[in-house]
Amino acid sequence: MTKPSSKPFGRVTAKDVAERAGVSRSLVSMYLSGNKNAWLSESTKQRIDEVIKTLHYRPNTLAQALRRGKTNTIGLLMGGIADPVGGMFAEAVMDEVEKRGYRLFIAVTRFDRKRERDALANMLNYQIDGIIYTLSADSDDDFFRSLENSSCPILLTENHPEINLDSVCFDLRPGMRDAIRHLEAQGCRRVLCLTGYFDRTQEQLASLAGEFACKLETYRWNLATNTHEEFMERVLLDRPDGILVQGNQGLDKTAWFPPDYQPRIVEFNMLPRPAPALDGVIHLPFRRWIGKMVDVLVGQIERPSARRVRVEIPTEFVPQNRVSELLRSLPEKNSFSTYATSNGGR
């Protein structure tokens, strides 16, 4: 039997195990690595194993990974995870990452650019194998240009043709096209679309402008600084007939608009909600999106290629009377009750 550890403080090392077991450091390393080419007697294995249990030794997996040149860790950079959709997104990414034998490291920036840069730098310093970047990259920023030369694969969730990085994003045009046709059929002549500050929604909407008689407008929204009140002030000033809005804004005409102004509203949403006040949703199939982004990133980690991969996942407009049917078909439907409750079940 081995004696209890006399080392009261500090991390137990492989050297401590070797000294207590009376073997060399290299033998301990062979035992821990499971090297099939290294022959160890059963008595030696038993002695090392007994010391490991007695000293409560835990291998430094990061050091081992760095020696191999691979940490089996993927980084996920997000603005926030407090809302149910953000949390569900992070959990879905974790599921897909773990299916492929990787672990997930999540960094939350609270939509702050300095936090964002620090988080990216930390991930690169810790030699994470690949990064999923979910925020809106600013192509005019030299910092993002510098990432193009990183040895660590970085995948964007928006397509920025001017940035030489892989991307897997939604093609909003099919969903927006059918949504605007629907709004026009309901008599809308002016449609306002809420977009992020750096996202590509505005460009994709502009590409459809010539197809419709109605006037298409956009309003840029910064999640970090803009409030519902600011958005409402703009909407009530212009009073468009129809509005395309991100689902996580929780916009509801019965709660936000006066009785004499009831615009038709279509949400962009990864998880539609059966809300009678909405005309429908532009469904963003996020399970397919997440599976594809992890596939692309893992492919670049394991089989690096100089050729950039750009994938667009098509979206679909679903009228409100078909939303319940759509929900029943979604693999993520069990998470809906939490999301619906957070949005007041509207």
Verbal overview:
- Helices cover 40% and strands 18% of the residues.
- By secondary structure, the protein is an alpha/beta fold.
- It has 3 domains: 46 residues, lambda repressor-like DNA-binding domains (434 Repressor (Amino-terminal Domain), Orthogonal Bundle); 131 residues, Response regulator (Rossmann fold, 3-Layer(aba) Sandwich); 139 residues, Rossmann fold (3-Layer(aba) Sandwich).
- Strand 3, helix 7 and strand 4 form a beta-alpha-beta unit.
- Helix 1 packs across helix 3.
- The longest helix has 17 residues.
- It is elongated and about 85 Å long.
- The termini are far apart.
List keywords for this structure.
alpha/beta; disordered C terminus; single chain; six-stranded mixed sheet; 434 Repressor (Amino-terminal Domain); disordered N terminus; Rossmann fold; 346 residues; 3 domains; six-stranded parallel sheet
Distance between the termini: 66 Å
Number of domains: 3
The average pLDDT score comes to 82
Any guess at the CATH architecture of the largest domain?
Answer: 3-Layer(aba) Sandwich
Largest sheet, in brief, is:
6 strands, parallel
Spatial strand arrangement across the major sheet: 2-1-3-4-5-11
Helix content: 40-55%
